[in-house]
């Protein structure tokens, strides 16, 4: 019996997930979709045979033909929608971020705690990227020794209109912020912003590029260089410098060609996160469906509601550090038992 998935929000990311579940995910199908633009929902539903459209996200959560919910709406709606899934007892995979502030994220942690069993998976897809997995394995095996530095670069060709410094933190840097939890298994205790002058292509309200410096309690330093209006393409590189050696992932490794005509040598850069992390998204959703099917609801290595809260707490400090003189402390509430 296939897991029937209801999808809330079928813009760029949600439509990509619908296509994935309809075509490639084993043991699942899309049963219901909604979007604040009904027309968009209808278009996307037409690509997933057997799915139907409803007007509101509440109807997706309540639908009898929905066993599990995938949320791909904008971040500011996540708290309310995830809380509704918990209340309905339906496993949910929510796209990052869990919330746009730590207090909203903590509400989700507490509600899941009340429910008494795991319900919430958080869509930090990089945890399912092959390179991320290899680096994690190398760290766990002790091959790299003690982590000293984690150097991250995150570049986008462009961003949607209205993208501000706050989005840079909660939408973009949040990926590296989760990488801190994933690789180092401890949150940052402080964060500092370093602001180079901005590119002339930076949209209004955005400092671009931006550099964040994080420090963990045990003394690892994390550098996160963000540049989201490169015009070039999507690039994510991560280097872990350990006491026994350094390891780098995310180097472009696709087809490299020699262009005889103009004397160029090289490859291409993916346009955005969909092609770059296609395999990671596939693996993430497949692992989630397997976890829903076996009743554990949250796949091994998946980010949890707690990871989402910790990320939000680090994001809050990162956002404050945009206008602070020195490092800003990260404060964390206690993890409920
Ligand atoms: C977007 O929301 C993502 O999640 C992408 O991975 C990131 O590169 C981009 O900057 C965000 O806006």
TrEMBL record:
Keyword hit for NAD: yes
Which SUPFAM superfamilies does the protein's record reference? Glyceraldehyde-3-phosphate dehydrogenase-like, C-terminal domain, NAD(P)-binding Rossmann-fold domains
Domain Gfo/Idh/MocA-like oxidoreductase N-terminal: residue ranges: 3-119
Q: Which GO terms describe its molecular function?
A: nucleotide binding
Give the UniProt keywords, A-Z: NAD
Q: Which residues form the GFO/IDH/MocA-like oxidoreductase domain?
A: 134-247
Note the Pfam families from the entry.
Answer: GFO_IDH_MocA, GFO_IDH_MocA_C3
**Coiled coil region boundaries:** none
This protein is called Inositol 2-dehydrogenase
Q: Which organism is it from?
A: Brachybacterium ginsengisoli
């Amino acid at each position: 019996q296939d897991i029937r998935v209801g999808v809330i929000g079928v813009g760029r990311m949600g439509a990509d997930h619908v296509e994935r579940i309809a075509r490639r995910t084993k043991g699942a199908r899309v049963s219901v979709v909604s979007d604040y633009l009904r027309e968009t929902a209808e278009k996307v539903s037409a690509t997933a045979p057997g799915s139907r459209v409803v007007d509101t996200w509440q109807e997706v959560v309540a639908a009898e033909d929905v066993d599990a919910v995938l949320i791909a709406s904008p971040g500011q709606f996540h708290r309310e929608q995830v809380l509704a899934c918990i209340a309905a007892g339906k496993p949910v995979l929510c796209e990052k971020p869990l919330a746009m502030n730590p207090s909203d994220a903590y509400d989700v942690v507490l509600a899941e705690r009340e429910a008494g069993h795991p319900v919430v998976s958080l869509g930090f897809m990089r945890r399912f990227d092959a390179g991320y997995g290899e680096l994690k394995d190398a760290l766990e095996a002790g091959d790299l020794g003690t982590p000293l530095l984690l150097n991250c670069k995150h570049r986008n060709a462009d961003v949607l209109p209205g993208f501000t410094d706050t989005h840079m933190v909660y939408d973009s840097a949040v990926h590296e912020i989760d990488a801190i939890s994933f690789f180092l298994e401890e949150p940052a205790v402080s964060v500092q912003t370093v602001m180079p002058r901005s590119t002339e292509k930076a949209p209004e309200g955005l400092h671009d590029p931006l550099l964040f410096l994080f420090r963990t309690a045990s003394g690892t330093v994390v550098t996160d260089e963000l540049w989201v209006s490169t015009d070039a393409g999507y690039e994510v590189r991560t280097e872990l410098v350990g006491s026994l050696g350094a390891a780098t992932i995310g180097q472009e490794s696709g087809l490299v060609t020699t262009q005889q005509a103009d004397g160029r040598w090289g490859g291409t850069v993916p346009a955005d996160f969909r092609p770059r992390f296609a395999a990671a998204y596939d693996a993430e959703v497949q692992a989630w469906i397997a976890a829903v099917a076996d009743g554990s609801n949250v796949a091994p290595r998946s980010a949890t509601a707690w990871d989402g809260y910790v990320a939000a707490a680090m994001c809050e400090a990162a956002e404050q550090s945009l206008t602070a003189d020195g490092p800003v402390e990260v404060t964390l509430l206690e993890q409920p038992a």
